[in-house]
């Protein structure tokens, strides 16, 4: 039994005294204790060493007391496990030296055994569960197949992922074969995470908003739906698509327990588009954490009033920025805890 079950209650749609709160990318560079470890260990060492990954996961919890923890890791451990090389270059971000651009490239991509390739994540989950001591739930996550394809084809981050979109439109068969391999790997991975102890899973479709609504159905949503179908009876699933307001209806009807929204969609519109019954998560503009703490508190209270306290999980509309002052992040969390 988890002592603070606000997050799990909200995922079930149950009535709560106040909504739960966590922040996407809450284990990150705005925390000085994270920066200390970052000086000593490179990115994938931090992900692959259970002592480090579990420590980084609980850092924001110790400081702010969020209502859920999210395992420190990265969505790009999936392509790595599939035999696609991934580097994390300082001041640059993800870099994949051998991107997938043809059927031949695709044939080299494997659907791996999870324990063999990602056993370190399983160990990190078990160690994190011990550190959390059943105080709060732990969230596991994966990127959506489309978002993973974006990096596999583009080879690095991008403002528009033109090469990834071009690959889908010029070589649709290869694109679908890659998406299916990623989907199969992701399903096995998330099931293993649940078995290891995570209490919910979130699928990040960070680049879903790059696609037209029609292309979104074909190249992204179809595969996310497979993941939801495979996971929903094992753990609550949260689906978050950045820029994907047009898909909120499918998301709400998918069997997912909650749907994430970004800050370009109003609470009222999100409730309308999702039919008013599903738990929503979001959607504070991450740059709004640069406002003065008093203003942040006022805006968070207003946001809760707009979404309603029930069937709602307070979060940012995307990941926290690296240069957010500590007291501003605190104001965001405290405003929720003080909500009446
Ligand atoms: C697209 C994406 C990635 N990774 C992730 C996404 C989807 C979520 C989103 O859209 O924000 C997911 C992710 N990445 C990380 C987490 C940890 C858990 C959390 O606290 O939310 C999560 C959930 C750690 C990380 N992943 C990364 C960092 C920062 C790099 C570092 O610590 O050196 C962290 C804390 C690196 C990373 N990883 C990725 C990028 C683009 C970068 C570079 C970003 C940058 O440098 O600002 C890919």
Automatic annotation (TrEMBL):
GO molecular function: uroporphyrinogen decarboxylase activity
Domain spans labelled Uroporphyrinogen decarboxylase (URO-D): 20-29, 139-155
Alphabetized UniProt keyword annotations: Cytoplasm, Decarboxylase, Lyase, Porphyrin biosynthesis
Highest taxon in the source lineage: Bacteria
SUPFAM superfamilies linked to this entry: UROD/MetE-like
One Pfam family this sequence matches: URO-D
Site (Transition state stabilizer): 74
Subcellular location: Cytoplasm
Any one biological process term the GO annotation gives: protoporphyrinogen IX biosynthetic process
Known catalytic reactions: uroporphyrinogen III + 4 H(+) = coproporphyrinogen III + 4 CO2
Pathway assignment: Porphyrin-containing compound metabolism; protoporphyrin-IX biosynthesis; coproporphyrinogen-III from 5-aminolevulinate: step 4/4
Residues bound to substrate: 25-29, 44, 74, 151, 206, 318
EC number(s) stated in the UniProt entry for this protein: 4.1.1.37
Alphabetical list of PROSITE patterns matching this protein: UROD_1 (PS00906), UROD_2 (PS00907)
One GO CC term on file: cytosol
Record's subunit section: Homodimer.
Family recorded in the similarity comment: Belongs to the uroporphyrinogen decarboxylase family.
Function text: Catalyzes the decarboxylation of four acetate groups of uroporphyrinogen-III to yield coproporphyrinogen-III.
Protein's recorded name: Uroporphyrinogen decarboxylase
Organism: Flagellimonas zhangzhouensis
